[in-house]
Write a sequence for this structure.
């Protein structure tokens, strides 16, 4: 489950999949599949929040066992919202107010941070377990023990003499830099996946810098982080338990950093922005610890006074962090994200809620982008998305272990999709769809020119060069509104977008505009009943198959003036409908069929 500390809050019901939303006026259960409000209760009518909209909800959590949602307000009330009766019940109140609420993964314990800088731990029945101060002078039970090796007293000091061995080095936090100006200065609480430990990031009253402390589920301090200059507010413990993610601003870069449970730093990766360009609002791991979502926002407003927001998805492989997807939200403040959460049951489902109460659900999947050719002219290329680069390895010529590659394609914006041309003997060409809504086409130069080098060496793996860039016009402005991109012919692309009605899809055939060759517009389109989750194309026959989220397989007839969709039939004439959707789909030709 997920909690943010400002604006709207959302959480997801694990039993029904509906979205729970708490605002400064009400708490609502919303069905994302049907687009309907299931239940709603006013928080202002019963006096939990003021009617002028100035109230703040600091936490929201679905409690499946109680068939309720628990929310906490900044004035100190802890309220249960019964999802069956839509009734509100105040189960407790803290006079000093609350700054955050976080439930353990097993929903047995809840942590409340108060306006007096204390931590209150309670059971699921809201019985107090302990109350301790956030700021502790002691390091914790996990304090490091040294046996003296390498200490100054045991080292040779040469001309410094014995006096040098007697000098005591004072280690102090006084040199720590205060937190950044935009920090909301509120505590952040995150639990380890097994619920045995939780971490709290808070502003140190002496230095003004953020410090992370780790506690066990009995409320006993385990460890305190080392002084980290530039540490920011975002905090999220990897569910698998190995690392705690946060963000840090360095003098020359902006990074996501990782800490161990003992408070020591252990690895990082650099964000693709300058050090003063964006702020990291939140970090969130998905349930199986394979993807880290980073929510960012520009620090400087544009000419119209609005700012741009981003949600980036990062994965790691061979100790290299890849930026796999970037959702770039335009500067319209109503379309900016106000909250987001990963689905607890489906690890690659991401739910985003915007200021205008629009709920967007992204269903991600792993796929291998490879050239589809079957003859010797195909280089057996595999493309890997890595931020603004596409890493291409031509396996027919060489085998290069990732994160290295045969060559790289450099783009101007983060890459969202890659597709190879689906035409025999031309399958080495690549089209790249970036987050700024452009499609860049890459191909080879003539073999005679590509074989020439200044030093006389012969090139085995020929790089690709940018040949053309298209701008895509779409009636939808949501990030990644176009998906499942296929490059069917030289200047003909197929894309899938959400339909007008819930649980429908629209297939778009994109082609250059007659008087604007660098712009792709919709040439034809067709509506499909159901959500298209994958496509498969066979270049030998031109057959194109669609898979819906309920397991149905459809055939798209695209090589005609008007698009049309029909059921896919097997040899017995029966419609193909899998009991569950396939993770990967592909077409092959058997005996000419």
């Amino acid at each position: 489950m997920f909690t943010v500390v400002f604006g709207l809050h959302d959480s997801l019901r694990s039993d029904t999949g509906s979205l729970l939303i708490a605002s400064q006026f009400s708490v609502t259960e919303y069905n994302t599949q049907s687009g309907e409000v299931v239940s709603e209760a006013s928080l202002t009518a019963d006096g939990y929040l003021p009617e002028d909209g100035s109230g703040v909800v600091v936490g929201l959590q679905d409690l499946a066992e109680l068939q309720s949602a628990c929310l906490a307000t900044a004035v100190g009330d802890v309220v249960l919202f019964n999802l069956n009766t839509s009734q509100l019940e105040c189960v407790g109140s803290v006079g000093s107010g609350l700054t955050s609420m976080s439930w353990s993964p097993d929903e047995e314990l809840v942590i409340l941070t108060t306006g007096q800088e204390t931590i209150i731990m309670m059971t699921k029945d809201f019985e107090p377990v302990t109350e301790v101060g956030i700021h502790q002078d002691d390091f914790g039970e996990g304090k490091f023990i040294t046996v003296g090796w390498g200490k100054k007293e045991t080292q040779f000091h040469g001309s410094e003499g014995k006096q040098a061995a007697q000098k005591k080095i004072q280690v102090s936090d006084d040199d720590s830099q205060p937190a950044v100006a935009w920090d909301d200065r509120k505590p952040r609480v995150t639990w380890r996946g097994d619920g045995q430990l939780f971490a709290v990031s808070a502003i140190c009253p002496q230095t003004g810098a953020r410090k992370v402390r780790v506690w066990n589920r009995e409320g006993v301090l385990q460890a305190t982080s080392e002084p980290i200059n530039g540490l920011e507010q975002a905090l999220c413990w990897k569910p698998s338990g190995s690392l705690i993610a946060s963000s840090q601003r360095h003098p020359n870069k902006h990074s996501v950093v990782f800490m161990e449970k003992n408070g020591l730093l252990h690895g990082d990766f650099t964000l693709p922005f300058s050090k003063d360009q964006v702020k990291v609002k939140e970090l969130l791991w998905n349930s199986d610890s394979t993807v880290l979502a980073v929510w960012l926002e520009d620090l400087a407003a544009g000419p119209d006074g609005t700012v741009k927001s981003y949600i980036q998805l990062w994965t790691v492989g061979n100790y290299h962090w890849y930026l796999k997807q970037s959702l770039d939200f335009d500067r319209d403040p109503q379309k900016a994200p106000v909250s987001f959460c990963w689905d607890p049951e489906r690890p690659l489902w991401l739910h985003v809620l915007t200021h205008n109460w629009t709920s967007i659900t992204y269903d991600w999947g792993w796929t291998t982008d490879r050239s589809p050719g079957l003859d010797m002219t195909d280089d057996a290329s595999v493309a890997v998305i890595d931020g603004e680069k596409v890493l291409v390895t031509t396996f027919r010529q060489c085998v290069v272990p990732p994160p290295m590659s045969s060559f790289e394609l450099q783009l101007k914006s983060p890459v969202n999709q890659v597709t190879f041309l689906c035409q025999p003997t031309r399958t080495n060409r690549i089209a790249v769809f970036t987050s700024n809504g452009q499609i860049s086409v890459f191909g080879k130069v003539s073999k005679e020119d590509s074989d020439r080098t200044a030093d006389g060496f012969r090139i085995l793996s020929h790089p690709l060069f940018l040949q053309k860039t298209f701008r895509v016009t779409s009636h939808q402005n949501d990030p990644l509104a176009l998906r499942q991109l296929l490059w069917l012919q030289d200047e003909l692309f197929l894309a899938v977008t959400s339909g007008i009605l819930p649980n429908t899809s629209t297939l778009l055939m994109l082609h250059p505009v007659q008087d604007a060759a660098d712009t792709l517009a919709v040439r034809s389109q067709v509506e499909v009943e159901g959500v298209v989750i994958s496509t498969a194309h066979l270049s030998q026959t031109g057959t194109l198959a669609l898979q819906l989220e309920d397991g149905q397989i459809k055939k798209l007839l695209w090589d005609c003036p008007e698009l049309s969709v029909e059921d896919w039939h097997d040899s017995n004439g029966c419609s193909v409908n899998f009991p569950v959707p396939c993770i990967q789909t592909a077409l092959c030709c058997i005996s000419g069929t």
Observations:
- Residues 1-7 have pLDDT under 50 and may be disordered.
